[in-house]
Each structure stands twice: as C-alpha cells, then as structure tokens.
Amino acid sequence: MSLDRVLVLNGPNLNRLGTRQPEIYGTATLDDLRASLQHHAGDVEIDLRQSNDEAELIGWLHEAVDARVPVILNPAAFTHYSYALRDAATLVTEAGVPLIEVHLSNPHAREEFRHTSVISAVATGVIAGFGADSYALALQQILRSA
Ligand code: DQA
C-alpha cells in the first residue's frame, strides 16, 4: 500500500485532552499529539480529527475505506458500546486497510464497563496504556508495514 496519509480519529471528549482528568490522560492536548505524530511521520501526512458525534466518525471510516488510508482510532467511550462504529471499522479492515485501536489509558485496569471493547475483534491490533506513546507506537507499526 502506498502511504501518503494516516487518519488519526478520536472519539468523544478527547477534544478536552490536556485538561480532562490529567492524572489519567496526561497534559498533552490533541494539537500537541498531532505535532508529535507529524514529527515521527516525516512526509506522511497526519490527518488528525476528533468528533463527539458517532455519525461523523463513521463517515470518516467510510472515507478511509474509499481512499484506502490506514487508521489509528481512539474510539473513546464508543469503544465500549458502539456496534455502529464496530461495523464501520469492519468495513476498513475487511477492505485490507489497517486500523489500529489505541487508548491513552489501560481500560482493563479501570472500571468494569471499560473492560469490554466492541472494536478490538475487528481491529488489526490494539495498543493501550502508554499515553500519547500508544499513538506513536501505532504509527510506527503502520509506517513499518506500509
Ligand atoms: C479512552 C478510554 C475510554 O474508556 C474512555 O471513555 C476515553 C478514553 C483512552 O484513551 O484511554 O474517553 O479511550
């Protein structure tokens, strides 16, 4: 797959990164994350987006299928219950386009409702618990396998 862009999609409440529960999610903002990923990606464009709206995230996954753009997806709370997002993620991986699920925190070490991901079974892989480095590790894997 020729790689000129990676979609980095972020679900609900991740627009509050930097001030949202910094003891769990750290103090880096989404803009900080975009800059650091772009630094690692070199000529590959980091197309980082965030939405609190399930429909918008699903539209972006459809775009990833049509344009064959690899995805790093932090589904945030949708991880735990959105079958619609899961179905859209299935379209991506079934098209042979990598989709890596990432989490800043380790959901398995937190409340019980966070232990279930409806996305993981259809993702190419999952990286969780390393803060912003979860995204950097996912990017590294996408760049390596391109
Ligand atoms: C999260 C974990 C989810 O449980 C939570 O709802 C989030 C962020 C993470 O990155 O650790 O919003 O996906």
Please tell me about this protein's structure.
The protein has 146 residues and is α/β, with parallel strands linked by helices. The chain has one domain (5-32, 42-145): Rossmann fold (3-Layer(aba) Sandwich), CATH 3.40.50.9100. 38% of the residues lie in helices and 17% in strands. The protein has helices at residues 22-25, 30-41, 54-67, 83-94, 132-145; strands at residues 5-10, 45-50, 71-74, 99-103, 125-128. The protein has a five-stranded parallel β-sheet with strand order 2-1-3-4-5, with helices on both faces. Strand 3 (71-74), helix 4 and strand 4 form a beta-alpha-beta unit. Helix 3 (54-67) packs parallel to helix 4. The longest helix has 14 residues, at 54-67. The mean pLDDT is 97. Residues 13, 74, 76-77, 79, 103-105, 107, 114 line the site of 1,3,4-trihydroxy-5-OXO-cyclohexanecarboxylic acid (DQA). 1,3,4-trihydroxy-5-OXO-cyclohexanecarboxylic acid binds at residues 13, 74, 76-77, 79, 103-105, 107, 114.
Mean pLDDT: 97
| Percent of residues in β-strands | 15-25%
Question: Looking at the structure, what is the overall shape?
Answer: globular
CATH architecture heading: 3-Layer(aba) Sandwich
The CATH class assignment is Alpha Beta
